[in-house]
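re: ur question from earlier - yeah i can do the single chain one, its not a big deal. heres the input i used so u can compare w yours
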Amino acid sequence: MKRMTRMLILIAVLAAVAIGYSLISRLSSGQDNAGASNKEISVASHDSNAVERLEWEYKGERIRLVKENNRWKYAEDGAFPLDLSKVQTMLSAISDIKASRSIDQAGSLSEYGLEEPQCIITVTSGGTEYTYFIGSKNEVTGEYYLYTGQGDKVYMVNSGLYTAYSKTLLDMVVRQSIPDLTTAKEISIETPEGLKKIVYKDKHEGITYTNAYKWFYEFAVEGNTVYSPVGSDKVRNLQRDISGIKWVSCVDYFATGDELADYGLDSPRAVVSVKFSNGDFKLMFGDYVDDNCYAMAGDSGIVYTVSASDVDDLLEVDFDSLRPDDVCLMEWETVDSMEVEVDGETLMIYFERGNSVDGESGSGVKEVSYIIDGRQGDSTAVKKFLDAITGLTSDGETDKPAPFKDPEVKIVFNRNTEFFHTMTLSLYRFNSQSYLVEFDGQARLLVGNDDVFELKEAFAVLSE
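and the output i got, formated as tokens:
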């Protein structure tokens, strides 16, 4: 009997829950049509090809675009550099406006931010105007309230429509592109303090000892132009830094005369000029504003802001920041002999070149054998020693001079070249972790103990 009583009570509770749910559903259905269906609601659609005019109000600005001769332009200024991709986004946003739900008998529009809309869009198509008011954002769904100006129905639409039209006039300016600098032939940075220039050269004769260097820093010395190699990896980084500059915002689309002075672009703090084989490109940087800096590409008159830190990085570029960190990039086909001294022990290594590897004497890459102190050397052991030389890697640099004590490693290269005929590589003990390199007239790079130990080991095999 008790079991039956409990069963009846449970049935009664379930019935009450079902009735309550049914009542709530009916009440919700009466307030929101979406409660009865999950289907999207078609609000409006416009054929992009038939649209003649787009007008919108946003942040106090009223902007009007018109289509003339099948091309869109800013109605107030036909010369305005209009970003047509953004116009296409706007047309796409109104081509099929759908709502996730509609609120019938919405009552006061102020509840939905529609008394003072965030954006008002007017579309003219076939001579008829259609207006859409975008209100506040629903923080739960991320959708926006939309009113068509007819009746008392309010819709909830996704953010696409608001995103497409929440644009000021300057947001509609086409953003100029900064070219890829990998094919550049010359890059210069001019500041009030002077000109810093690097140039690309296919040949190195008379400038440096190896053809591995292609970029050179240009100096003016007593009326003459001289060049010094710079690191290829550092030039690539500079090229990426310039190409990667991003426009933060556009502040003017036709600045001239006094207006340029307002941005500090009449006397720029820096001008970056790039020469290509098929043309030139120029960037000018003016005054700082907060965390940004005014900038202009060429003489376009379009003024943007860019990150001030990007400009600071460019201002710091100089020869010291671009100097190569390569220790020794010797071209072994140019070496006839080497005098090697390691920890007081000396060897003389001669390079003897015979027929080319394809068997034709005098052409191609020639076979090389090595004579060490008058005896035939082991080619494998010599090549390992040569690899240890080119494998020396910079472990930092110092401005301290080379010590007065003798180097632990000294290699004199005798070469078959017109320039840099004799070169000396010396390694001095600098501290407990590294050695100071002296080579090609420079003594600033440090190499680690491991690299020097590997070089000494390879030498020890040669001297056996």
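Residues 1-37 have pLDDT under 50 and may be disordered. not sure if urs matches, ping me
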